[in-house]
Amino acid sequence: xxxxxxxxxxxxxxxxxxxxxxxxxxxxxxxxxxxxxxxxxxxxxxxxxxxxxxxxxxxxxxxxxxxxxxxxxxxxxxxxxxxxxxxxxxxxxxxxxxxxxxxxxxxxxxxxxxxxxxxxxxxxxxxxxxxxxxxxxxxxxxxxxxxxxxxxxxxxxxxxxxxxxxxxxxxxxxxxxxxxxxxxxxxxxxxxxxxxxxxxxxxxxxxxxxxxxxxxxxxxxxxxxxxxxxxxxxxxxxxxxxxxxxxxxxxxxxxxxxxxxxxxxxxxxxxxxxxxxxxxxxxxxxx
Length: 287
Ligand SMILES: [Zn+2]
Fold this sequence. Notes:
Elements: E1 8-10, H1 25-38, E2 51-56, E3 59-63, E4 69-72, E5 94-96, H2 102-105, H3 108-115, E6 118-121, H4 123-131, E7 137-139, E8 145-147, E9 151-157, E10 164-165, E11 171-172, E12 178-184, E13 189-192, H5 202-209, E14 213-217, H6 226-236, E15 240-244, H7 256-262, E16 270-271, E17 278-280
Parallel strand pairs: 1-17, 4-5, 5-6, 6-7, 13-14, 14-15, 15-16
Antiparallel strand pairs: 2-3, 2-17, 3-4, 8-9, 9-12, 10-11, 12-13
């Protein structure tokens, strides 16, 4: 995993005027994008010491307050959205797999074998990866919470499919797809929805776990459309969203702008549009 300093960090709130000239252009652009839509309501998400970097597609690198590294859906080498400097991970402690498709299971097996990372998945993928030689694997199923010491992870529903492509072109049953709610020692809660359409029980996820920040697919056609993702935001009651899983392939045509427009009635919503390699600054506090 690249050192945290290697990731380009954007502030979810506008930096003080005296700091603006020193910020890279992309930082200013993203900040302005956010401010343009929500100028009256901008409030930074308090990340509780958690560093979150978007690697592209549905892949995120997360560093806990205690310095442990997590990758959710580690699709790196073949991920066309993944910056080169993020492809060769040397240091990762946890891998979280939402489902078995290539763009999510990705590099999990070789990465887990090389690093010894604790790998979390549903039971079917657990069986698959342990059969491939992954030794440190943890099965979870919907409704259950695994306490991994540095954070807790709860498996929640996702509406999608979850097969694994065999090397001979066969389809291996991959169990049911998952979303994850991560709770860190600081109390900060992060929801990665995995690949999913909207479902009414997202309201339950909001009621039970009240995530501070949600990573929501918006790509349309094979996951939620921006229209559905906007209503998912309402059901979850979440006020901070990073759109993901869009634009990587022609069949993911949804855009952050469509999502932002569809969600424009949601009071106090912050939408953080991250380019691959950009992250959210954990040091910024809610103003
Ligand atoms: Zn996907």
